[in-house]
Write a structure and sequence with these properties.
Thioredoxin_domain, globular, oxidoreductase, antioxidant, NADH-dependent peroxiredoxin activity, alpha/beta
């Protein structure tokens, strides 16, 4: 599995960015991750569309979209389902219609494989979350098994800590003292 300190793999994938007819899809590439504007990226993966735990996570990331934007970061959601399945799911699920971030389609499973997050039996992505700095380097990885949803507040807490570029003690929260050495 790709880990902290490694460059995020190159990719070029279709993503669902809207449910408006004719504006549903865009290409997203790894070039999108690297920028001079000091914008971080949080990419989170779920196993399958049209399931039960996955929409709770996607909806929670969407609910906290403003928190991520306030931290100069962008969200990308991803799974190994196609862009057409993503679009159908968004149109048919009340909590997903108004997503503010793209749903990346890794239909070939090549990116999930490069990341090392494919479950070996079903060949679907684990619940993986990557925080990527503006140079395209992974700064945090968290992977949950298929049946356990992640904690979006923890992703925000870790992003806050990474962005301080200081030593943050256990259970540190934004606004608290960091460790001075």
């Amino acid at each position: 599995m790709i880990t902290v300190g490694e460059k995020f793999p190159s990719f070029n994938k279709k993503a669902v960015v809207s449910i408006e007819k004719g504006k549903e899809f865009e290409d997203i590439t790894s070039d999108f991750l690297v920028n001079d504007d000091n914008v971080w990226t949080v990419m989170f993966w779920w196993p399958k569309d049209f399931t039960f735990v996955c929409p709770t996570e996607i909806a929670e990331f969407n609910k906290n979209y403003g928190e991520f934007r306030d931290r100069d970061s962008r969200l990308i959601g991803a799974s190994t389902d196609s862009e057409f399945v993503h679009a159908a799911w968004r149109k048919n699920h009340d909590d997903l219609r108004d997503l503010k971030f793209p749903m990346l389609a890794d239909t070939s499973k090549s990116l999930a494989e490069d990341l090392g997050i494919l479950e070996p039996t079903e060949k679907i992505a684990y619940r993986a979350t990557f925080i990527i700095d503006p140079t395209g380097v992974v700064r945090w990885v968290c992977v949950n098994d298929l049946n356990v949803g992640r904690n979006v507040k923890e992703v925000l807490r870790v992003l806050d800590g990474l962005q301080t570029d200081e030593l943050c003690p256990c259970n540190w929260e934004k606004g608290e003292e960091t460790i001075n050495v």
